[in-house]
Design brief:
This protein is mainly alpha-helical. Helix content is about 35%, strand content about 5%. α2 packs across α3. The radius of gyration is 20 Å and the shape is extended.
């Protein structure tokens, strides 16, 4: 079906003008970060985090991409809405974190990278954004 193209070559080959369609069962529900993805045809039940991860494959930006399109043959729009809803509500914000508490707790001085990370946290608008920053930085900070 792939005309001898190895799986590791698919992202680069898909980015060329040679291929315009990629048929997928479940393999690329997560982890396939291809900004050119524009249209998705869905023919299986999706809900919860699976719906969010699958449909979010389309949300990468690239030059010339102004919109996306999903044609869903199976799912109820209300169920998809409810799957995404927790990620679009304003979370309750607790007290601001004091990065110096970490120094006291772990008994170490901050590196410049740590200080940059803490500055990003201070400017983060929501707790969800703080959690995302910590996850991306693979930082042991707990909220």
């Amino acid at each position: 079906m792939n005309h001898g193209i190895r799986e590791t070559e698919l992202p680069d080959r898909f980015a060329s003008n040679e291929f315009q369609v990629l048929l997928v069962a479940e393999k690329y529900q997560t982890g396939f970060d291809q900004p050119l993805l524009h249209t998705m045809y869905v023919d299986k039940r999706l809900s919860g985090i699976q719906a969010v991860q699958t449909l979010s494959r389309l949300n990468r930006t690239c030059p010339g991409k102004e919109n996306t399109f999903v044609l869903d043959f199976v799912n109820d729009p209300e169920e998809i809405y409810l799957s995404f809803k927790p990620y679009y509500e304003t979370p309750l914000q607790g007290e601001k974190s004091d990065p110096h508490q970490l120094n006291e707790r772990f008994g170490t001085d901050f590196t410049p990278a740590d200080q940059l990370f803490f500055n990003q946290l201070e400017s983060a608008a929501t707790e969800n954004e703080k959690i995302r920053l910590a996850a991306e930085a693979n930082h042991p900070l707990k909220f």
